[in-house]
Structure formats: C-alpha cells, structure tokens
Design goal:
The protein has helices spanning 2-6, 52-64, 66-86, 139-205, 211-246, 254-257, 279-282, 284-305, 353-422, 427-461, 477-486, and strands at residues 35-36, 93-106, 118-133, 271-272, 310-322, 338-347. The protein starts with a helix and ends in a 35-residue tail after the last helix. The protein has one domain: Outer membrane efflux proteins (OEP) (Up-down Bundle), CATH 1.20.1600.10. Helix 3 runs antiparallel to helix 4 and helix 4 runs antiparallel to helix 8. It has eleven helices and six strands.
Length: 521
Amino acid sequence: MVASLAVAGCAVGPDFTPPPPPVAAQWLESKIPSVQTDKQNYRSWWKSFHDPILERLIEIAYEQNLTLLSAGTRVLQARAELGVAIGEFYPQQQAALGAASYNLQSQADPAANPSNPLINYWRDSLGARAAWELDFWGKFRRGVESADAAYLQSIATYDDVLVELLGDVAKTYIGIRTIEKQIAIARVNVQRQRKALAIATDKFHGGTATKLDVYQAENVLGATEASIPQLTIQLQQGLNALRVLLGLAPEPLGFLLGRSTGKIPVAPPKVAVGIPADLLRRRPDIRAAELRAATQSAQIGVAVADLYPAISITGSFGGLASNAYGHNLGQMLHPIGRAFSVGPSFQWNLLNYGQITNNVRLQDATLQQYLVDYQNSVLKAQQEVENGLSVFLQSRIQAEFLRRSVAAANGALTIALEQYNLGTRDFTTVLTAEQNLLQAETNLAVAQGNVPLGLTMVYRALGGGWQIRGANEFVPPAINAEMRSRTDWGDVLPPAGAPQPAAPGLPGPEDRGPTVRAPEW
C-alpha cells in the first residue's frame, strides 16, 4: 500500500493533446461590408428575422422534439457510467459470509463413550471478505478520465442535436412560406391566363383569330393549373416534416402558422460571423469530436495497464465456533472465535502479452482515426459557413435582378395583350409574355426564400442556438418525474431548476453517481 501511494501520480498511457486544427485566419467574404467579423451573441439567432411565428415554433420544438429528448437521456447514461467508473476506486469485490452446518463424525476415542461412538455438533461462521485492486498503474484513473470525457462528449452531442433541430425548424418554416408564395403566384397567373383565354375565344368567335390561339391559351393555362397540385404536395411534405420536428401527431397547424400565408421571413442586411477560430469553442460537434478522441486516448492507458501485474489486497474478518467438546456457538462473537486474514496478491498475464500488446495498438489506431476525424470536422464546419455565406450573399443579388425581371415581364405582358387586341401582334407573343412572367415571379420567390435560408445555414454552421439550454435541462420536467418514480437517481438527475454544481466530486456512501457539471466551452 505504501508503494502504491508513492506512485499514486503514475498513470501509464499518453496524456491527451488535441492536434492542431486546420483553421483559416479569415473568411473568404470577410471584406464584404455586409459580413461582420466582430464577435456576436448567437444564442437566439432566429430572432433576427423578427418573426413571432418562427420564434414560437422554435420554443415548441425545444420542449417536445423526441430526437432531442433521446440525446438528453444519453447524457444521463454517460453521467451514470461516470459514477460506475468512479466506483472502481473502492474495493471491487465485497461479500458478507455466513454459514451453519450440522456435523456427524466418529469419536477419536470410542472407548470414552462406548454407548455413542459418534459425535454430532453444529458449526456456525459469520464474517466479511473484500478484495481491493490498487490503482498502481493508473488503470482506474484512466477509466475515470475516459468516462468523464465521454460524459462531456454526450453533452456536446446533445448541444449539436439542438443546433441541428433549431436549424431544421427554421429551414422547414422558410421552405413552407416559400412554397405558399409560389402557390399564390401560380393562382394569380391562372387568373391572368384565363383572361387571355377569354380574349382569344372572343376573337375566334368574332372571326379575327383562329382556333390555334384558343388551343395555345388552354395549353399554357392547363400547365399553370397543374403546377398548383405539385406545389401543394411539397407544401404538405414540409408541414409533415414540421410536425415531426415539433413532436406533434398529424393535425392541422393553422393555430401555429396563423394567417401569414406566403410571408417569407426577411433576413437582416448584415450577418455576423466572427472569425474561423471561434468555431472551435462554439460548434458542439467539433467539441464532441475532440472529446471523443480524449475518451479514446484514456482507453490506451487502460489497455497498457494490462501489461503490468494487477496488485490487490484481499482480506477477511469474522468469527467461527461450534458446540463440540464443550464449546458453544455464542463464542463466535467472542475473541476466542475470531478469525481474520489479510495479504497482497497479484495477477500477471505473462502468456497473453501478444494479445495485450495488439489491444494497445488497436486502441492507439482508433485514437489516430478520431484525431483525423476531429481535424476533418473543423474543415467541414468552415465549408458549411462558406456555403451559407455564398447562398445568403448571392441570393440577395439574384433577388434584386429578378425584381427587375418581374417588372419587365409584367410590362411586356400588358403591352402584348394590348397589341393582340388591336391585331398588331399574334397570340404567340402573349403566350411567351405569360410564361416569362410566371417564371420570373417564381424565380423571385425562390430567391427571396434563399436569402433567409442562407442566413439560417450560416448561423447553423456557426454553432449558434445551443446556449438556450439550461444547465440541467437534458430532459423535460415530466420525464424527470417519471424517471424518479422508477429509480432513485440521487443528484445524478437533478430536479428541474436545481442549481448547477461548479465541479464534479467523489461519490458519497449512499450515491456514487457523479455530480452534475457543464462542459467548459
């Protein structure tokens, strides 16, 4: 024990050091005036749209989404597993022993009692036994280190699920509004084209036009009318996706979406992106990738410890007594019946060195994979930000050009109808103008939807939104109460609204679960 305490700071295996992340100094669009690189608060980025309906949808999704709830329960699992790992510091094997036996045997001297050559007596024992493997090589400390990193990784994963959820809700809502506007545009154009058909029909009956004009008008009108059911299918699919995100069964959503049909959220003129290095502290998936590697790094130390002897202390203490030869069973509790043993032991798997060594190599190769995955996640995060910025900035430019295109197409259709009525233009000019106007208005609606969609992609890629999570809010109060009704969770599952402890601590005698703590972002 003295020797083990002397090397208590020794733990075999590598200490984790994250690899250098491949981070750019600035974003490619950092010199554009509408892109701000100063630090901003991304906690509630969706409020920049000033859309109360979107804000309400975000609130419901956070409260009811089942994927997020599943991620929250995984945090509780990891927290409990950390408590199991901490428990390895205590004697690993403990047992209370008790036995009572009836014995019948021949006398050593039958002549002493020839009428009864046999001796019958009771024999009782009571005691306890324990075995404690000392953490001589840091095996258990590495295990706790691994479990602690896995616990923090589960929190980072939860936050990443939350970021994805908020982005999906905003993206789906913007898509619904965009399709609603496309449907409204199609219906307006149906009315325009019906008027053109009526003009062509009147001119045909008046003998100033041929049946060809009528057929062409009906053809264009039918194609426009057919686009409405196709757009309605996309709208229903978007609403169905939104219901799943909100944790709702199929039901009308009019009470949530209100009457703002086709009102696409308006994005602010500027976007705040900070610098690429901020992603390392803000993006939960990057943090989770780093913690995954840290978890695996500690597992190397656990595997290396198997190369050395496992040193244990075993001991037993109790009492033993019988009622033979004038004794009595009560002596089991007296010093005369007391028995104990204590001593060291060790186990060294010398013949399994090849297997253990290859297990160490396996753990090390897995660590290297996770380190590469971490660096790759940093690259992908920057790619997602750049993609979002490109969509946001270029869609604004595209929308401005399309506004001019819509105005020109509208004017062209007005003149074409006037000239057709005067007989100076054929009906083909009217049909072309109708199709151009419909296409320009549809393209403008899509571009207008892409502007807030691109901003959503940016803030999602920046890792904003997870900050709305409370310190202990991994499961809602109803699930918290349900789990407590089944199991004594102690402080592993804090009551809703409980204060957040500052740091983890060793378990007490009644609850060996770890104290709650938040990741150090």
